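Bench notes, afternoon.
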Amino acid sequence: MTAPTARRGFTTEAVDALIQRRDEPEWMRERRREAWTTYQELPMPTQQDEEWRRTSLRDIHLEDVELSEDWHAPTGTLLPEAERKETFGGFLGIYDGRRVEYRLDDDLKAKGVIFTDMATALREHGDLVREYFMTKCVPASDSKFAALHGAFWDTGTFLYVPKGVAVELPLRTIVAASLDGTASLAHTLIILDEESQATFAEDFTSPLTGNAGFSSRVAEIILKRGANLHYIGVQHWGKSVHDFHTERVLLDRDSTIILQTVELGSRLSKGRVEAILHGNGATAKLQGLYVEDGRQHLDRYTLQDHRAADGTSDLLFKGVLTDKSRSVFSGLIRVSPEGKKTAAYQQNRNLLLSRTARADSIPNLEIGANDILGCTHGATVGKVDEEQLFYLMCRGLSRIDATHLIVEGFVDPLIEQVPITGLREALRHEIQERVSVLEAQ
């Protein structure tokens, strides 16, 4: 059998080929076409746009991205060794766009929980997918890269928890991709019905490669009245990958989310993390952690959008940077006239381990209601405190060990919130190893 010919670039011909290749309902095919039309109509962002002023796309060559149909199955499980003794309610392993591992507890199936890959969900639960996929949360018109995602998405996770069902054990997804000059466009769609609850964690991982890879991810999270979700997403892409992503949650009345993002990989990461509180009494806690070295560049926009009364949001993002890496944080707390009795807090803190690392932090407030409990923000950027280092070194620690201890104390309040023991310890170990290596250089 002749191997499929690899296509280069995101083109009309590539969209048509994708539609012909995949066995999808006509409505999804039409949405892909509409998203591609939207992509063509929207201008490519430039540094003249406020949101992109500090991030350049000059090294992004979408015409060179290879859209290969060739595929080779991985060997062994995708689940990291540190988590193989964990007990999960369900596990989904995806490699280069295809499901390679899957399991879901029978009792969850009996309760009506749906946890599967997007392709299977499209075949078996098409009505649910059709109602929520890029309609209410992240439409294709949201941005240039959201439109590209809507046209070319290739894999992802679908989770639906019925009314009143509590999923006690965490659900876990690993999305692995080769990304050697190729692309990954993973879509996460989570719907929690009224008074339901769940914990969900997903990883995005690829090896170190010489050719630039491309990722465009979207996570749509819809929480109905009284629902409760703890979500964590960890990005482990290789250092040659350009990653664009949006994580957005819609919160109905009295719903609650803890939304954590951890970013350790990629050459460039440009993303949005947003909570839209459109129901009275909704609560959102947004937590972010990023560790950068080399010439990594991370640009993050966050939004706490209070559109209803009695809402509470709390955001804390922390970064550790060294070498010539750079981070950009732009956060907005927005309160509409309907957002009475709102309480919102936003904090971005950055720890610089080298003189050439740079962190820009731009917190913002936009208050349209005159009866709020309080909206505050803050930002810090600083080096490791030499007095703290001196104190620890006087007690027998080397400079490397002292720095390691200070960094650990800086990041641990966020790591401690990770709900899976194996993942939590693996993150601690990885951050410790990176700091130790960098300080030794």
